[in-house]
Amino acid sequence: MDHQAFDTFAKGLASNASRRRAIEVVAGGVLVTLLSRLATSNVAARGEVGDTCDRDSDCRDGGRCGKGRCHCKAGHKRCGGRCYELRTDRLHCGACGARCRPDQVCRDGGCACPIDMTATADACVARVSCGGGSNCPSDQKCCGGICVDNQTDRDHCGGCGHSCDSGREVCIDGHCQEPICKAVRATCSTADECCQDAAATQCGSTCSGGGAICCRPLGAACDLPCDCCNLDPSEDGYMAVCGASGTCERLSSGGGGGG
Fold first, then answer.
1. Which tens digits make up the pLDDT trace of 89-106?
2. Which letter does DSSP use for residue 112 in this model?
3. What is the DSSP letter of 100?
4. CA angle 97, 98, 103 (to 5 degrees)
5. 253: CB partners within 8 A, 6+ apart
6. How many angstroms separate the Cα of 29 from the Cα of each of 23, 25, 35, 113, 258?
7. What is the DSSP code (8-state) at residue 189?
8. C-alpha closest to that of 72 among 56, 93, 90, 96
9. What is the mean pLDDT of the chain?
10. Is 117 helix (H, G, I), strand (E, B) or coil?
């Protein structure tokens, strides 16, 4: 075979190999897309709380199948139609709809900074290593090899190793205490604990079930279905939800009093 014929043969092989490789890449991409769509479809089709089911896998994450219906697993709570672990879920931390800031995690039902960060008044910032020395900023102290602000750090509040109780306690001026007021969807005992504004936030039951939480009265602005307070059944017994207009509306009426 002369040089010209060999070059032509080699180019043909290379061209065919390139074509085969291109076909393999395209086919692989199509397969990945189809599998992704199938997985998404399967997740979307999984049942919410109250939907019919035959097995646990028919229910969404956090749910289980019992007596033909999806229910929440132990340690999870219903928020809307889905089940969440309120001790660790950033969007439902300690109570349905109680969101942590983007820079926070949910730890034991309370929003906190990641373990490798420390809290300032309104943000989580990277902790500075001090290696047991004293090379920390003047307003911080070396605790366990990292620089922390004992006035705001939940894990070292008022002194090294003094951590605030799990849940909603925060470190303010070196003392562990409940927040000055609680936001909508936070657990409460009286309305005095809830942050008050023009909506006159109340403390009561909502469609999420469970104990009393800070909630909005009828006509007030809302974001999630269970932001709204259900009136005590002895008074009227209506169910309130966050309507399409973004305000709390009466869903249905019981048979108690007037209406």
1. 888 887 777 778 888 888
2. E
3. P
4. 120
5. 236, 237, 238, 259
6. 10, 6, 10, 39, 63
7. S
8. 56
9. 74
10. strand
